[in-house]
Design brief:
Layout lengths: L2 H9 L4 E3 L4 E4 L8 E4 L3 E4 L2 H15 L9 H19 L8 H8 L1 E2 L6 E4 L11 H17 L6 E11 L2 E13 L5 E16 L2 E11 L1 H8 L4 E2 L15 E4 L15
Parallel strand pairs: 4-6
Antiparallel strand pairs: 1-2, 2-7, 3-4, 5-6, 7-8, 7-12, 8-9, 9-10, 11-12
Amino acid sequence: MNIEKAYDELCQIEQLEFKGPISQKKGIFKPKDLINVFAESYFFSIDKNGMFELLQNVINKINYNNEDISSFDYVIKVLNILQNQLNFYFGTRNSEINREVYYLQNGNKTDIEFDRICSLSQLKGVGVAECAEKVSVANNVLLMLNKLGLFKEDIMYLNGLLSMDGITGGHAFLCLSHINSKGDRIYLIYDVINPEFFEYNSENILYPALYKLTEEEYKDFISGKSFNNNKFILSNAYTPKNERTYSGFHLEENEIKPKINL
């Protein structure tokens, strides 16, 4: 199946959305879909040209050669390539360019006075993209790879909270899931933009932030229960350098509300 046909078929499938402490979305983000970036006024969209350019870069790097796409090594290979290509496409984070100001000055205007929309192609090389932009694009790329037979895992786009380095804020991440050899469904929570660090032979190793949850643990998570990075996929052998906790939004009085920049 070619890229155009795979994309068209995915775009014909209605996106599913589930509300709760963890917001879940399943399906591809189409160019018309507006992904919230700041409060209720700044949005990101994934245009087809930008999407295809980034996807082709990932496919070229995978260089598929009859590998076992269900193997864990292959999954890690794809995720490492994806993270590198996202960073390459969007550019190194530029602290001199304010993300919100960039959207305000360069985003396309709508009928609403202060609303602004920036597309994937507009943000190429600018260095302002963060989780909302990178994770939504990662969602699309992995769905396309799945459709093209280059990635086996199911993909879900998630919004919740991340507590790391003493800071708690809204965060976008993914869930990958599959049925293992025993017939059990396993869930891998994947933080696209925050790889884990651990020490190996006196060196700091960078590794995709993947956290393994059972089906019951995943149901608890999306219902409001938190987990920390002791669920890191390699935690039996290596200890992550920094602690972090993933949780959902809670609407009770005096707790963090969901209107947080992503």
